[in-house]
Amino acid sequence: MTEHYNNKINRKQGRSRNLPSRTAMMTLTICLSCVAIWFLYSSGFFKHALQSSKNAGSEFTYGSIPTEETILELERENYDAVISLLHRKLVPFEPIILDKIKLLTEKHGIKLLEFPLLPRLADNSEVLRELEEFVTKNSGKYYIHAYDDYDRLKISARVINRTGSRISYHDNLQADDADRIGDLNSFRSGKIVKLDDDVYLAPHPTEDEFYHHINVSDFRIVVSMYNVHDFRDSLKLLELIKLCKYSYLRFKNYNLKVSPFNPYHPLQIAHEIRKLPRPLLIITMANPSAAFQGLQQAYFSNEPALPPILFDKWMSGGRIRVITPNLAEGPRPTEDEFDGYLFPRGIRKALYIGHPESKTAEEDFGISFAAGIEWQASEYFTRSLVDSVSHGGPWYLYGPGSSTAAADIQRRFGPALPDSFAFDLDELPILRKVDEGMIDYTDNEVH
């Protein structure tokens, strides 16, 4: 019997072999990961953005295209200059408007400073560096405008905000509230979930969604959860890095691997996210996805995650139901399913509700141990067991009495995907130390 389970463990440890196709795919994904890191850290824009520059003595007023009446008002209030973000290459309108503004400012003795930005998600890195350098080295009162778009104003405001300068808005110039992400229910790839005050979890946006909703919102940081060793994730990560770079948004990626799934990684990410400045946006591949559901579970429950989407495929004995963020219930697994199904999906403890001395219990104890899953049995579902399965795990509940026990657990600690906190935020528990180690993340931090 011992030799049988030793062989089982050895098979588990030696299952991965150097197949040519697998090696080729791994090489490709590693190359893409290196490209992503190079793209991020070799950018002069990012290096400059990491530097801290302060100038609290300047005041910037954002407004629409200035008329002569506006210029007269600026002259009366002792403004030093008008800063235009219009671009002379955007013919026919912007060069004409710039020339008219130049005539007005010269007429009334106010300087016109041009920092031409391209609209939408274009690479304005060089001009933004020049703008930050100007704001850092000069003090005064400035009126800043673009055309009829809000994105160029918002990007320049992010640059100016980091210098400590004061910003106000002329004629209540603000983005349409309907464009802000807090007023949206979903993107094309799934529903948006509000995790906390000024904390949103969203599926990967299209470029248009990023431009119309994320770029005009007031996020201080965008966080993503992509596995840099996965081909599809790497492509999405590169795309998101580019969008954040062009929007001058601070960015950070947590390297979350979902296959095999480590249930403690989303919990560790949730603890890290709570330390970040707000407002903040978290982006994953899609909703539903294991990463999206896992973070939602961990953030609201403060427990290791068990994403329901991982259990869409049935076991040989039937369907598995995830009934709380850290517990699933279903049929008895086969010997291979302990190792090949439950463990890779995040199950770390199994509870058999049945006679502890039955033949089934005797067999499953050894099989579960060989699969790396802690196993226990109880003929009755006692109060102490209720307390046990409400934390840690994640748990798999099965056996003759499991359906009755599952109904009680679900009533007390469900649902599987909570939408509110299940613990007191003022008494946030310290993250438990786990054998599987702390989260591995790529520090793609862009200020």
Plain-language structure description:
The protein has 15 helices and 17 strands. It is α/β, with parallel strands linked by helices and 447 residues long. Among the domains are: 59-174, Cobalt-precorrin-4 Transmethylase, domain 1; 307-415, Protein tyrosine phosphatase superfamily (Protein-Tyrosine Phosphatase, Chain A), CATH 3.90.190.10. The strands form four sheets. A five-stranded parallel β-sheet has the order 3-2-4-1-5, with helices on both faces. Strands 8-9-12-10-11 form a five-stranded mixed β-sheet, with helices on both faces. Strand 15, helix 13 and strand 16 form a beta-alpha-beta unit. It is elongated, with a radius of gyration of 28 Å.
